[in-house]
Design goal:
By secondary structure, the protein is of the alpha+beta class. The protein folds into two domains: 265 residues, no CATH class; 118 residues, Leucine-rich Repeat Variant. It contains 17 helices and ten strands. Strands 1-2-7-4 form a four-stranded antiparallel β-sheet, with helices on both faces.
Amino acid sequence: MSDAPDAALATRRIKERALGLGFEAVTVTSVAPLEAVRHFEAWLAAGRHGEMAYLAEPEHRERRANPERLLRDLRSVVCVALCHPPERDAALDARVGRIARYAGGEDYHRIMRERLRTLERFVEDEALPGSRALWYADTGAILERGWAERAGLGWIGKHSGLLSQTLGSWFLLGEMLVNRELVADPPLEREHCGTCGRCLEACPTRAIVAPYQVDARRCISYLTIEHKGTIAPELRPLIGDWIFGCDVCQEVCPWNRFAPPAREARLHARSLEGWSLEKFLELDEPTFAEVFAQSPIRRAQRDGFLRNVCIALGNRAEAGAVPALVRALESDPSPLVRGHAAWALGEIGRRLTAESAECSVEEIVARLAQAAGDTDDSVRGEVLQALAQLE
């Protein structure tokens, strides 16, 4: 065990270095059982993790419950926060649909990796020579929000995200496990959501089933990123024009009035010049990989992303999207995309007015009828359902 003065000096140096690397906040906690483990296990038991089966694997659960499995003789956890932009680009949203703020720019994993590796080397070589450190940033089996809450970085809000009185919630988390004792910061004495329930009320799909409890199976972020198959028809209208992730519960949170601007330019949203929702439907696998090479959007994969695009176009219900959706219905190699294109055409046809000069319901019906012979059962089912609502 390090004596107090040495631990205090090392703690101060680590914090100074972290802030110098561009992190907006850094706090420290000692290692002890986390209450978050119990909540996580209850969440898994309720099946609210959906298709993210890896979360329930015994090895992953053991590591989350016992972080000493990650780093032998673990004594301290350093928690850092990196802010991403709190503002939206309305013109960009109108053109390409809505993308969660954290995903608008370069993949945050890359940015966090660079900074945390530098901090890791500083800890091992300078602040605590001979020590062992191990960094994480949404990259392993660790309860990030639980440790950050324990370290006093913030509190768990009713939407289950971490909130800070000075940063709001527009920030990313990273952790540094260290096998030496550091001076721990106290956790907050209480949470600061009070009687506010705006996030529960605003969630389009009612995924926040109770305060501090989120059912991923209904969450737009989960549906547009982690879920790989068909999205349930009853949930599609609720997704709106979100094509990757969702920010609604954070947008309505009063604490985000205090969110500072992001200093890291690489996290600011790209313009995606020349692209639109309709043009996205032209993406083949190589082009998708090229356009989103350094973006978190890669995680949705090409077929999942275009599925989301179809849903957004269906919910916008603009006649001008019909040609792009027809091409996707007729020629996209993915049954997932073809099926959701059929649904979108049905939604547009259902809400098409007689005054529309761009296309008619009869034209949409004719295109759908031609696709009724699709070789895939799921696509034929989507086509028939779309036709039924246009009769």
